[in-house]
Amino acid sequence: MKTLKIDIILKIFTLIALGYFSYNIFLSLEYNHGKMLLLLLFGEFITMMLVIFSKSTDNRDFSLISVTLTISATFYFFFVNLNGGTALIHPIIAEIIMSIAILWQIISKLYLGRNFGLLPAYRGIVTTGPYRIVRHPIYLGYFIMHMGFLLGNFSVYNALLYALQFGRMYYEEKTLKQNKDYAQYMKKVKYRFIPFLV
């Protein structure tokens, strides 16, 4: 019963968060390059849909650091500055980078399916598709998407905000590797989220 209540609260919060982000994007469209913001919204929309339909679990990591990092990294768009950044590359190149990242996220999330969740928890292991290349392909997609957005709309503030994903990934893997099957999977797939590097 407690797990069900937590699931319902998280899912309601994600819907409220998506509505808030959509409203901010609507307000920002006339000041910023519209396509980049719409791509950003689309990537987050997929995440929200998976959260709504995710499996229930009772082994989440509710430590203060884990919860804080999860909320901050998932709902970063409450704080992200959508206007006033410096374009370091042409907007079309930024859009291409973000489009590739979103496509990678979609593929990774489809493979993960209902095993997707916000708080670190063991919901099962996926070892096919992108999960044969890196252990956290969704974080790779986030990283590329955020880099595309930052290169098209750079600010130090946004860069620091996006860095929260690294802490979130660390705590997620700390929870997952307590499972024997996942520990074996880590030996087979050596890289966390960037092939041949990290």
From TrEMBL:
<dbReference type="InterPro" id="IPR007318">
    <property type="entry name" value="Phopholipid_MeTrfase"/>
</dbReference>
<keyword id="KW-1133">Transmembrane helix</keyword>
<keyword id="KW-0812">Transmembrane</keyword>
<dbReference type="GO" id="GO:0008168">
    <property type="term" value="F:methyltransferase activity"/>
</dbReference>
<feature type="transmembrane region" description="Helical">
    <location>
        <begin position="139"/>
        <end position="164"/>
    </location>
</feature>
<feature type="transmembrane region" description="Helical">
    <location>
        <begin position="12"/>
        <end position="29"/>
    </location>
</feature>
<protein>
    <submittedName>
        <fullName>Isoprenylcysteine carboxyl methyltransferase</fullName>
    </submittedName>
</protein>
<dbReference type="GO" id="GO:0032259">
    <property type="term" value="P:methylation"/>
</dbReference>
<keyword id="KW-0472">Membrane</keyword>
<dbReference type="InterPro" id="IPR052527">
    <property type="entry name" value="Metal_cation-efflux_comp"/>
</dbReference>
<dbReference type="Pfam" id="PF04191">
    <property type="entry name" value="PEMT"/>
</dbReference>
<keyword id="KW-0808">Transferase</keyword>
<feature type="transmembrane region" description="Helical">
    <location>
        <begin position="62"/>
        <end position="82"/>
    </location>
</feature>
<feature type="transmembrane region" description="Helical">
    <location>
        <begin position="88"/>
        <end position="107"/>
    </location>
</feature>
<dbReference type="GO" id="GO:0012505">
    <property type="term" value="C:endomembrane system"/>
</dbReference>
<keyword id="KW-0489">Methyltransferase</keyword>
<feature type="transmembrane region" description="Helical">
    <location>
        <begin position="35"/>
        <end position="53"/>
    </location>
</feature>
